[in-house]
Protein backbone atom coordinates (compact mmCIF):
# COMPACT_ATOMS: atom_id res chain seq x y z
CA UNK A 1 0.00 0.00 0.00
CA UNK A 2 2.80 2.44 0.89
CA UNK A 3 4.50 1.75 -2.43
CA UNK A 4 1.25 2.54 -4.25
CA UNK A 5 0.89 5.82 -2.34
CA UNK A 6 4.43 6.80 -3.23
CA UNK A 7 3.85 6.00 -6.91
CA UNK A 8 0.57 7.92 -6.90
CA UNK A 9 2.24 10.94 -5.29
CA UNK A 10 5.07 10.91 -7.81
CA UNK A 11 2.63 10.65 -10.72
CA UNK A 12 0.36 13.44 -9.41
CA UNK A 13 2.83 15.59 -7.48
CA UNK A 14 2.10 18.89 -9.26
CA UNK A 15 -1.66 18.49 -8.86
CA UNK A 16 -1.37 17.54 -5.17
CA UNK A 17 0.90 20.51 -4.41
CA UNK A 18 -1.42 22.88 -6.28
CA UNK A 19 -4.43 21.69 -4.24
CA UNK A 20 -2.48 21.95 -0.97
CA UNK A 21 -1.34 25.49 -1.78
CA UNK A 22 -4.90 26.54 -2.67
CA UNK A 23 -6.21 25.11 0.61
CA UNK A 24 -3.57 26.88 2.68
CA UNK A 25 -4.29 30.18 0.93
CA UNK A 26 -8.03 29.75 1.60
CA UNK A 27 -7.43 28.86 5.30
CA UNK A 28 -4.51 31.10 6.38
CA UNK A 29 -4.79 30.79 10.16
CA UNK A 30 -5.61 27.10 10.45
CA UNK A 31 -2.12 25.75 9.82
CA UNK A 32 -0.60 28.27 12.22
CA UNK A 33 -2.96 27.18 15.03
CA UNK A 34 -2.19 23.52 14.36
CA UNK A 35 1.54 24.25 14.52
CA UNK A 36 1.16 26.19 17.77
CA UNK A 37 -0.75 23.33 19.42
CA UNK A 38 1.77 20.76 18.16
CA UNK A 39 4.72 22.85 19.36
CA UNK A 40 3.14 23.33 22.81
CA UNK A 41 2.52 19.58 23.15
CA UNK A 42 6.13 18.85 22.18
CA UNK A 43 7.46 21.41 24.65
CA UNK A 44 5.21 20.07 27.43
CA UNK A 45 6.46 16.55 26.64
CA UNK A 46 10.07 17.78 26.86
CA UNK A 47 9.46 19.45 30.22
CA UNK A 48 7.87 16.28 31.59
CA UNK A 49 10.66 14.06 30.19
CA UNK A 50 13.34 16.14 31.92
CA UNK A 51 11.67 16.21 35.33
CA UNK A 52 9.30 19.18 35.16
CA UNK A 53 11.45 21.62 37.10
CA UNK A 54 14.80 23.40 37.07
CA UNK A 55 17.59 21.10 38.27
CA UNK A 56 19.06 23.93 40.37
CA UNK A 57 16.34 26.10 41.90
CA UNK A 58 13.22 23.97 41.36
CA UNK A 59 11.39 26.52 39.16
CA UNK A 60 8.31 24.83 37.62
CA UNK A 61 6.82 27.61 35.46
CA UNK A 62 6.94 26.19 31.93
CA UNK A 63 7.58 29.55 30.28
CA UNK A 64 10.83 29.91 32.26
CA UNK A 65 12.22 26.42 31.54
CA UNK A 66 14.65 25.45 28.79
CA UNK A 67 17.15 22.77 27.85
CA UNK A 68 20.57 23.20 29.45
CA UNK A 69 23.63 21.53 27.94
CA UNK A 70 25.59 20.25 30.94
CA UNK A 71 28.98 20.39 29.17
CA UNK A 72 28.33 23.75 27.45
CA UNK A 73 28.24 22.13 24.01
CA UNK A 74 24.91 23.63 22.93
CA UNK A 75 26.42 25.51 20.02
CA UNK A 76 27.51 22.25 18.38
CA UNK A 77 24.01 20.81 18.87
CA UNK A 78 22.35 23.89 17.38
CA UNK A 79 24.71 23.82 14.42
CA UNK A 80 24.04 20.11 13.79
CA UNK A 81 20.28 19.82 14.41
CA UNK A 82 18.93 23.37 14.59
CA UNK A 83 17.13 25.36 17.24
CA UNK A 84 13.75 25.39 18.91
CA UNK A 85 11.21 22.87 17.67
CA UNK A 86 13.79 21.20 15.38
CA UNK A 87 15.95 20.49 18.41
CA UNK A 88 13.01 19.24 20.48
CA UNK A 89 11.85 16.96 17.66
CA UNK A 90 15.34 15.53 17.39
CA UNK A 91 15.56 14.98 21.17
CA UNK A 92 12.23 13.16 21.15
CA UNK A 93 13.40 10.90 18.30
CA UNK A 94 16.47 10.06 20.41
CA UNK A 95 14.32 9.24 23.47
CA UNK A 96 14.98 12.46 25.43
CA UNK A 97 18.67 11.72 26.24
CA UNK A 98 19.68 12.81 29.73
CA UNK A 99 23.43 12.18 29.78
CA UNK A 100 24.30 15.65 28.37
CA UNK A 101 21.09 17.60 28.91
CA UNK A 102 18.92 18.77 31.77
CA UNK A 103 16.08 21.18 32.41
CA UNK A 104 16.98 24.61 33.75
CA UNK A 105 15.17 27.89 34.23
CA UNK A 106 16.56 30.69 32.11
CA UNK A 107 18.20 32.36 35.11
CA UNK A 108 20.15 29.24 36.09
CA UNK A 109 20.87 28.40 32.45
CA UNK A 110 22.35 31.82 31.70
CA UNK A 111 24.17 32.02 35.02
CA UNK A 112 26.11 28.82 34.27
CA UNK A 113 27.27 29.89 30.82
CA UNK A 114 31.03 29.72 30.23
CA UNK A 115 31.57 27.49 33.24
CA UNK A 116 30.31 29.82 35.94
CA UNK A 117 28.55 28.56 39.05
CA UNK A 118 24.86 29.42 39.45
CA UNK A 119 24.22 31.93 42.27
CA UNK A 120 21.76 29.45 43.79
CA UNK A 121 24.61 26.98 44.24
CA UNK A 122 26.90 29.68 45.65
CA UNK A 123 24.19 30.57 48.19
CA UNK A 124 23.79 26.89 49.20
CA UNK A 125 27.56 26.52 49.60
CA UNK A 126 27.80 29.72 51.69
CA UNK A 127 24.97 28.57 53.99
CA UNK A 128 26.60 25.17 54.49
CA UNK A 129 29.84 26.75 55.74
List the helices and strands and how they pair.
Layout: H1 2-11, H2 13-26, H3 28-49, E1 65-69, H4 74-81, H5 84-93, E2 101-105, H6 106-111, H7 119-128
Helix pairs in contact: 3-5
Structure explained in plain terms:
The protein is mostly helical. The chain has one domain. The protein is 62% helix and 8% strand. The chain has seven helices and two strands; from the N terminus they run αααβααβαα. It has helices spanning 2-11, 13-26, 28-49, 74-81, 84-93, 106-111, 119-128, and strands at 65-69, 101-105. Strands 1-2 form a two-stranded antiparallel ribbon. The chain is elongated, with a radius of gyration of 21 Å. It starts with a helix and ends with a helix. The model has no long low-confidence stretch (mean pLDDT 88).
In short:
Helix content is 62%, strand content 8%. It is built from 7 helices and 2 strands.
List the main descriptive attributes of the protein structure presented here:
single chain, 129 residues, mainly alpha, two-stranded antiparallel sheet, 7 helices, 8% strand
